[in-house]
Write a structure and sequence with these properties.
The protein is an all-alpha fold. It has one domain. Helices cover about 60% and strands about 0% of the residues. The chain has a two-stranded antiparallel ribbon. Helix 12 packs antiparallel against helix 13 and helix 17 packs across helix 24.
């Protein structure tokens, strides 16, 4: 048993295991039947001469870095220019490298938080064993997600180490990989890390914070649904079911109440302290980097685009979140797995930790979850996944959790990852079969049900049922219902020491 623990607790165990899995997948795993789909077709055209690509516009200019990395690798190796399906293994290998490197950087971040070995194992389980990292990077590899995953993890590490120039470098790279990560980085450049004491806000401050969050989402719903009367515009995505709209509205208002908890630290609301801690040099760096990126984009001169305007990009999470009640939550668990369930169960503790890391980190995370926390297309939050994993294990670090709980979590993670599900076990590639709501039917749903906007009603019900089951199992692993003074109470099984 001691030898087994020594192997599992070794920081290279999970990265090496993932390399083994990844190489096997590259050699014999399944890929999307047409090799590249949707955005993948675009990124392939950006590799050799992105200026000549018909897709090089104001949307994709902020996502060209991974394609340029692939170009640089092939240019260094030989003069041959692979095309089409020949590029699939290159992106798969790049994704393996990014995920393994993310594990390496994550280990360094966990050292900063003094995470014990058992909780580090939990962190790797939560990070790696899900559809987002076991299936998506290999089945549909020609994307920018995993480069963003690595850069975002590095961004957090350098921020905690207060390495300004490294933060700037990561932010610049994210500017041309993952726009949300870029804005996240600008906030971290401008507002250095400050460890703050935790103090409970007064009632007025709580009301203002909760009220502001609820007012924001209520305004978005009013604007999008009742004033602009928008409808889902994306191809093959199911439309909003109007008969469930009141329940759908409630379902997207509820999470904003909980998102606001990251701001519930009186130290964060100390305005004089905030201005006292401002570093005007860092603010200047953030402004200069913004100007630099704007200048680079201007010089590249991409085509204009109306399809992915900034306004539409900001509206879409709310619009798609209203498709069905709690569709975003089903999508989150389907894509990221048990990490979402555990985050919900321990959100109060996680939010408290976040609030103590200062205005920069709270601002960066708050911007992500307030804008995209209810998006059913969960992959938009891939840049936040390693951050949340770190804060979860930090919240659980002082809890004496028995080994059987870790094994149960690993089993549930394996189940929700769908690593066991064959996606291409049908003849040829049949035309898209649309259901009555305009979404894709089977067999295409075996893949697209994991990307929320394209989840059919049938898969919404089936996956929702399994999400409730997984959530229930995890709840009873960590909590128990007991009687205290003749009252039913929910009590944690493993309270913090």
């Amino acid at each position: 048993m001691d030898k087994f623990k020594a192997i599992i607790f070794n920081k290279w165990f999970f990265p090496v295991l993932f390399i083994y899995y990844g190489i096997n997948y590259v050699v014999s795993g399944e890929v999307y039947p047409k090799m590249v789909s949707a955005d993948g077709r675009v990124f392939v055209t950006l590799i050799w001469d992105f200026r000549q690509s018909q897709y090089f516009d104001m949307y994709y200019v902020y996502r060209i870095l991974p394609s340029l990395i692939i170009k640089s690798i092939f240019s260094f190796i030989s003069d041959v220019r692979p095309v089409g399906e020949q590029l699939i293994p290159a992106f798969q290998i790049l994704n393996i490298f990014c995920i393994v490197a993310t594990c390496y950087v994550l280990d360094k971040i966990m050292s900063f938080f003094k995470i014990i070995p058992q909780k580090r194992v939990l962190a790797y389980i939560l990070l790696l064993i899900n559809f987002a990292l076991l299936k998506y990077p290999f089945y549909l590899p020609v994307m920018t997600d995993n480069v963003a995953l690595l850069l975002s993890t590095m961004l957090l590490y350098f921020y905690l180490k207060n390495n300004t120039w490294a933060i700037i470098a990561c932010t610049l790279a994210l500017a041309f990989t993952w726009p949300m990560g870029y804005y996240q980085g600008l906030i971290l450049i401008a507002l250095p890390v400050h460890i703050l004491p935790y103090t409970v806000p007064n009632k007025l401050q709580k009301r203002l914070i909760y009220g502001g969050a609820l007012l924001l989402i209520s305004f978005l719903v009013l604007l999008i649904i009742f004033i602009e009367k928008q409808e889902i515009w994306m191809e093959f995505a199911a439309r909003i079911d109007r008969k469930y709209l009141p329940l759908s509205i409630i379902s997207i208002i509820i999470p904003y109440y909980f998102f606001a908890k990251i701001f519930l630290n009186k130290s964060l609301l100390d305005i004089p302290l905030f201005f006292k801690k401002l570093d005007y040099k860092r603010i200047a760096y953030a402004v200069l980097l913004f100007i630099l990126v704007y200048t680079i984009v201007h010089l590249l001169d991409p085509k204009p685009t109306a399809m992915y305007s900034t306004a539409q990009t900001l509206r879409d999470p709310t619009l798609f979140g209203l498709r069905r009640p709690f569709v975003y939550l089903i999508s989150d668990i389907s894509y990221f797995g048990v990490v979402v369930c555990i985050l919900i169960l321990f959100w109060n503790s996680v939010a408290k930790i976040i609030s103590q890391l200062g205005w920069g980190l709270v601002g960066a995370i708050g911007l992500n979850i307030l804008l995209f926390g209810i998006t059913p297309q969960t992959r938009h939050l891939i840049n936040l996944l390693p951050w949340l994993v770190v804060f979860i294990v930090a919240a659980l670090n002082k809890r004496d959790i028995p080994n059987y709980v870790y094994f149960a979590i690993a089993a549930l993670a394996f189940f929700t990852s769908k690593i066991w599900l064959e996606l291409n076990n049908y003849e040829d590639y049949p035309p898209m079969q649309l259901d009555k709501n305009g979404s894709m039917g089977l067999p295409h749903q075996k893949f697209w049900m994991n990307l929320g906007p394209w989840m059919s009603d049938q898969m919404y019900v089936i996956q929702g049922t399994f999400c409730l089951l997984v959530m229930g199992i995890l709840f009873f692993l960590f909590y128990k219902i007991t009687t205290v003074n003749n009252k039913l109470m929910v009590v944690q099984r493993f309270p913090a020491k």
